[in-house]
Amino acid sequence: MEADPPQIWLDQRALAVGVGDRSTRLTAGGFAMLELLIRRQGEMVSFEELARVGRVRSRALAESALHTAVYRVRKALEELGAPSAITNVRGFGYMLAADRALPLAPRELIAVIRAVRAPLLVAERGHVLLANEAAVRRFGDAEGALVPDAKPASRTPLADGIELFEYDTL
Predict the structure, then answer these.
(1) Which of 7, 33, 99, 156 has the fewest C-beta atoms lying within 10 Å of its C-beta?
(2) pLDDT tens digits along 99-135
(3) Sheet-wide strand order for 86-89
């Protein structure tokens, strides 16, 4: 039985891309380009569109700068353990191949977790994947660490090995 590909997630505030419990920061331009490629998965995105969101200003350097920025995004994904599915459409732009793309963590869940005032953690097999601001204030920067020993008010399974921990507000 083939293992599921790793889930990729984006943190817009930190300009970070992550796979599982590992993450790395991208430049603002690199993050914006990756986000656009993900939104348009399976479609070719032109050099011009990528240059606009990636804030490449010089037309003379635009193509070279884009190739470099995409290379850095690919390298970041590979270092996180995710094979890159970004392909060059020679002479036109890039695309995130639909048949090789990584599944995305649900953005709606991430947005809800960040908006809740009670401390919330999402963990996979005991390691914190995501912590909202209230959890960071209470436990410190817990992402990547083990779930704190504090007794949660509730513990909800979300998927195989992934749980949502809610703690009482102090």
Answers:
(1) 99
(2) 554 455 555 556 566 667 788 888 877 888 778 788 8
(3) 45-46, 93-96, 86-89
Burial class of residue 4 (count of CB atoms within 10 Å of its CB; 0-12, 13-18, 19+): exposed
Residue 14: which residues within 8 A CB-CB, separation 6 or more? 23, 25
What pLDDT, on a 0 to 100 scale, did the predictor assign at position 101? 45
List where CATH 1.10.10.10 sits in the chain. Answer: 8-96
How many Å apart are CA 22 and CA 129, to the nearest integer? 8
**pLDDT at residue 64, as a whole number:** 77
The predicted pLDDT at position 114 comes to 66
Q: Residues for the chain: how many in total?
A: 170
The residue among 165, 37, 16 whose CA lies nearest residue 100 is: 37
Q: CB within 8 A of 121, min separation 6: which ones?
A: 128, 130, 131, 132, 135, 139, 142, 147, 148, 164, 165, 167
- How far is CA 3 from each of CA 7, 62, 80, 122, 145, rounded to the nearest angstrom? 12, 39, 17, 22, 24
pLDDT digits (tens, 9 = 90+) for 20-69: 778 899 988 888 888 888 878 777 888 888 888 877 665 555 677 778 88
Q: What is the largest CA-CA distance in the chain?
A: 58
Say which CATH topology domain 8-96 has: Arc Repressor Mutant, subunit A (1.10.10)
